Amino acid sequence: MGTQLETSFVQQLQENQNLIHKICRLYTNNDDAHKDLFQEITIQLWKAYPKFRGDSKFTTWAYRVALNTAITLYRKKSKTVNTVEFDNKLHKINQEEYNYEEEEHIKLLYQAVQQLNDIEKALVFMYLEDKDYNEIAETLGITEVNARVKMNRIKGKLKKILNP
């Protein structure tokens, strides 16, 4: 791939890596698994980037790839992730360290969200990222009405989990 494509990818990933970290946090429960999933999502984004035409925002496309990667890997019974060696220096990506302590105050919410199914997790994640229902629906491949109905049900589920 050309250096212009690589430069563009690295810049987009650098600007949006926090969304990938948040997805990793939803679908993993320790640092090693988090790093493995982050690496695998980065690889899948890089492989798919030449096909990204800009029909949607980079973040919408990245959400779709990242969520599909996480769901596919973590739906398997085994929680191990087979990764391909990927040298961050080769692609000039400076991976920021993810600080779990900074988000200690939302730990209970994450624990509650962990009890949801994969699609519900994705929906909650995007909702918490202030995505509108149109973008949520587009990313998840459902209707906007369906996204709203699912979110209302999820809110009820989370209330029961957080306030038994």
Automatic annotation (TrEMBL):
Key words, A-Z: Sigma factor, Transcription, Transcription regulation
Domain RNA polymerase sigma factor 70 region 4 type span(s) in chain numbering: 108-158
InterPro entries in UniProt: RNA_pol_sigma-70-like (IPR039425), RNA_pol_sigma-70_dom (IPR014284), RNA_pol_sigma70_r2 (IPR007627), RNA_pol_sigma70_r4_t2 (IPR013249), RNA_pol_sigma_r2 (IPR013325), RNA_pol_sigma_r3/r4-like (IPR013324), WH-like_DNA-bd_sf (IPR036388)
UniProt key word Transcription regulation: yes
One GO biological process term: DNA-templated transcription initiation
Alphabetized Gene3D superfamilies for the sequence: 1.10.1740.10, Winged helix-like DNA-binding domain superfamily/Winged helix DNA-binding domain (1.10.10.10)
Any coiled-coil regions, as ranges: none
Segments crossing the lipid bilayer: none
The keyword Transcription regulation appears for this protein: yes
Sample GO molecular function, one term: sigma factor activity
Domain RNA polymerase sigma-70 region: 14-79
Protein family according to the UniProt entry: Belongs to the sigma-70 factor family. ECF subfamily.
PANTHER family assigned to the protein according to its UniProt record, in alphabetical order: RNA POLYMERASE ECF-TYPE SIGMA FACTO (PTHR43133), RNA POLYMERASE ECF-TYPE SIGMA FACTOR (PTHR43133:SF45)
Protein name: RNA polymerase subunit sigma-70
Source species: Flavobacterium cyanobacteriorum
